[in-house]
Structure formats: structure tokens, C-alpha cells
Amino acid sequence: MIRICIAGGTGQVGAEVVRQALERGIEVSAFSRRPPMPGTAKHHDGAAYWAADVATGSGVAEALAGADVVVDCLEGRSRKAIKGFADGGDRLLHAAKMEGVRKVVLLSIINCDQVRLGYQRSKAEKERRYAGSDVETVVVRTTQFHSLLAEVFSAGSRVRLTPVFKGARFQTISPSEAAAALLEEALGSRLGELHRVRTVGGPEILPMRSMAQIWQTATHARGKVIELPLPGSMGEYLREGQNLIPEQTFGRETFPAWLAKNADSL
Ligand SMILES: NC(=O)c1ccc[n+]([C@@H]2O[C@H](COP(=O)([O-])OP(=O)(O)OC[C@H]3O[C@@H](n4cnc5c(N)ncnc54)[C@H](OP(=O)(O)O)[C@@H]3O)[C@@H](O)[C@H]2O)c1
């Protein structure tokens, strides 16, 4: 039987990979710096949870022991975490090689190499480290998550505004369908090359303004929808539609459907 280790197995996508893998009868281990307590929302019975930190390497080899495939769902948003994000990937890849892991699957962001901001650069740099690894790797780049747009709108609502970026459209995907794409790659056979990149998107492309209105209706939030210009490479990325992949609609769950399903937590 295959054994999968999920790095960042308590995150919004990682925990879904854990859940879906267990549902398919796969043996699962997962690690994060703070493993979940049994009985809490992030804990899935049947998975073996480990405390490990890719920033230092502590506990990583132990968590990976016996795994055939590793799925990297790690995140790093603080300045320090962004700076060390790719090095954390190196530590994970090194431990994977030492532990005889066959394949490592990385969750990344569509065209992250086109944005010259620290956060996106850290993703692109990690992708490059993966492409240089001795172990087989698949990078799964996804479009933005439905939850990201909900976070942006919700942040504005604190000052009774719903911000939208001028000219931006999104093809958002649900975190659970991003997890399904990762699991599909984790379980798939090698397709030839040692390193492969696959990009997947959500089911439909919507102007950000329409998404703001859909979000307001779903959450009963009031507030003026205001259009903000987004300068720099992030603005270009969105205006040029580099965040879209209409020919790869992997996800089926639409933004309104995802909002309806998560109404209690929005
Ligand atoms: N948001 C989007 O629209 C979007 C779109 C495409 C791709 N992505 C990418 O998807 C990835 C996952 O995102 P997410 O939202 O699921 O992340 P998340 O919810 O923040 O989860 C991150 C996970 O990584 C763990 N972690 C963080 N630092 C760690 C460290 N040093 N050592 C070990 N574990 C660590 C966290 O647990 P602890 O904190 O307990 O360690 C947690 O389990 C990110 O790389 C993100 O860029 C995001």
C-alpha cells in the first residue's frame, strides 16, 4: 500500500489532502510545527501527525520515514518565512532523498514567476529548487483560491468597503479541489520527465466586481464596492490575465457554491 506524507498537513489545502487520502484508504502521515490535537477540526483520525519544522529541518526526516510520496502544502507569509521558503523546500527535498521517497508534489501558484513581489518570488524560487532536485517532482500550480477572494473582501468590510482591483478577473478554485489535483498527481505514475509542472484552474472566470457582489449577497455584508488601481507587476499579472487558465478547468465548485457551503465560517 502507498504511504503519503503531507507537509503542512494542517493547512487549508494540506488538511484536505489528508482527509481525501484517508477516504481512499491510503496510509497517511502529516507534519507541521504544531500538530493538531485529536478531536480538533484539523485532526483526521487515522493519520499519523508529526511535529517538524522545515525552517530548521527538525523532525522532518522522522515525519517522512516510510513515505513513498510527499505532498508539499507548506506556506510562509511572514518576512522571515518568505526569505527562508525555498531553503525549507531544499531541506524537505534532501530529507525525501535520504528517506527514499519516490516523488514530491508541490503546491504552487499559477505564473508566480511573473510577479516581482517577495511572496510570489519565494514560490518561484522554490519551484526552481524542485526543478533541480534528484527526486521526481510535480509542481501543481493552481489559480487563486475562492477563500483568498473572500479574505480580501472581508478585510475591506471592516471599514464598510468591498475592494476590487481595476480590470481584475479571477478563475478561483476551491481549496479542496486544489487538494484533489495534488492527490491525483501523488497517486499517478511517472509520465516520463523527472520534473513536471501542471496548472489547474477553477470552473469559471469572473470579473472581481461580480465576485464582490456575489460575496456581499452570500454574506449579507454591506459596504461600497470600490475599484482600486493595482500598480506594479501584480497589477500587470491580473490585468493581463496571467492568473487565468481557461483551457484547464479542473475545479467544478463555483465561487457562489463554495460561499454557500462555507456560509457558517465566512
Ligand atoms: N491562497 C491562494 O489563493 C493560493 C493559490 C495557489 C497556491 N497557493 C499556495 O498554497 C500553499 C498552501 O496554502 P494554504 O493556504 O493551504 O496554507 P496554510 O493554510 O497557511 O497552511 C500552511 C501549513 O504549513 C505549515 N507550516 C508553515 N510553516 C511551516 C514550517 N516552517 N515547517 C513545517 N510546517 C509549516 C502550517 O502549520 P504550522 O503553522 O503549525 O507549522 C500549515 O499546516 C501555499 O504555498 C500557497 O502559496 C495559495
What is the compact description of this entry?
The protein is of the alpha/beta class and 266 residues long. The protein has a domain at 3-142 and 174-200: NAD(P)-binding Rossmann-like Domain (Rossmann fold, 3-Layer(aba) Sandwich), CATH 3.40.50. It contains nine helices and eleven strands.
Characterise this structure.
By secondary structure, this protein is α/β, with parallel strands linked by helices. The protein has a domain at about 5-140 and about 175-200: Rossmann fold, CATH 3.40.50.720. Helix content is about 40%, strand content about 20%. It has a seven-stranded parallel sheet with strand order 3-2-1-4-5-6-9, with helices on both faces. Strands 7-11 form a two-stranded parallel sheet. It has a two-stranded antiparallel sheet with strand order 8-10. Helix 1 packs across helix 6, helix 3 (about 80-100) runs parallel beside helix 4 and helix 7 (about 210-220) packs parallel to helix 9. The radius of gyration is 19 Å and the shape is globular. The model has no long low-confidence stretch (mean pLDDT about 95). NADP nicotinamide-adenine-dinucleotide phosphate binds near residues 54, 74 and 109. NADP nicotinamide-adenine-dinucleotide phosphate binds next to strand 5.
If strands are numbered along the chain, what order do they take across the biggest sheet?
3-2-1-4-5-6-9
Structural class: alpha/beta
What coarse outline follows from CA principal-axis ratios? globular
Average pLDDT works out at 97
CATH-assigned homologous superfamily of the domain at 3-142 and 174-200: NAD(P)-binding Rossmann-like Domain
Q: Could you tell me how far the N terminus lies from the C terminus, measured between alpha carbons in angstroms?
A: 38 Å
The total of beta strands comes to 11
Low-confidence stretches: none
Please provide the ordered H/E string of secondary-structure elements: EHEEHEHEHEHEEHEEHEHH
> Percent of residues in beta strands?
15-25%
CATH classification, class level of the domain at 3-142 and 174-200 = Alpha Beta
Largest sheet: 7 strands, parallel
* Count of helix runs: 9
Radius of gyration, whole Å: 19 Å
CATH architecture of the domain at 3-142 and 174-200: 3-Layer(aba) Sandwich
Helix content: 25-40%
Query: Which cofactor or ligand species appear?
Result: NADP nicotinamide-adenine-dinucleotide phosphate
According to CATH, the fold-level topology of the domain at 3-142 and 174-200 is: Rossmann fold
